[in-house]
Amino acid sequence: MTELDSLPATRDAYDAVAARYAQQFTDTLRDRSLERALLAAFAESVRAGGEGEVADLGCGPGHVTAHLRGLGLRAFGVDASPAMIELARKANPDLRFEVGSMAALDIADGALGGVLSRSSIIHTPPKDLPALVAEFARVLAPGGQLLISCYATDDPAIPTQSFDHSVVTAYRWSPDHLAGLLRDVGVSEVARVLCEPKPTDKRQFQELQLLAAKN
């Protein structure tokens, strides 16, 4: 897949806020017991399939990559923002982090036992999402596990809705639409969880956690 036209603006925007982002979000899993449970289930499924490497795509400052390693996975991180990768390497010198694009991964076909995309598709323009999930499918081995999280649309019949984001324009997705795009590239939904927002959350959107496996 060729590079996305939207990538330079997204990369530059996250470079500019990397330090603040890392300070604000590196402890987010502490108060998200359900997400920790889903990550544990994802890790167990990866291990059951053969212990392949796991890519945390859009890894940011690397805190979730480190969490995956703590769950026993051979995890590494990829992010388009060099500033984010620099922070990730400093915080986790024993882990591997690479500057790269989810749309054009420097990873061989079928090389991975798992892919995590935690809120990393939210800045992908709708026209580019089918090719992006195809890239996820390309790097997964048969039986490889995929866990995607993103915000969900208000109406499942609406494929996508844009929303203002403090960094750069973002999108939320219909769970059925996203599952259909995965199915088109040979990745089958295993489970989905829709989390209701807390009254104190900045954005009052449902959050989707979608677990799938490559056929």
UniProtKB/TrEMBL annotation:
GO BP terms: namely: methylation
SUPFAM superfamilies per record:
S-adenosyl-L-methionine-dependent methyltransferases (SSF53335)
- Which domain of life does this protein belong to? Bacteria
Q: Which residues form the Methyltransferase domain?
A: 54-144
Gene Ontology MF: a single term: methyltransferase activity
Q: What's in the keyword line of the UniProt record?
A: Methyltransferase, Transferase
Under the heading InterPro entries, the entry gives: Methyltransf_25 (IPR041698), SAM-dependent_MTases_sf (IPR029063)
Keyword field contains Transferase: yes
- Kindly give the Pfam families that the UniProt entry links to this protein: Methyltransf_25
Name the record gives this protein: Methyltransferase domain-containing protein
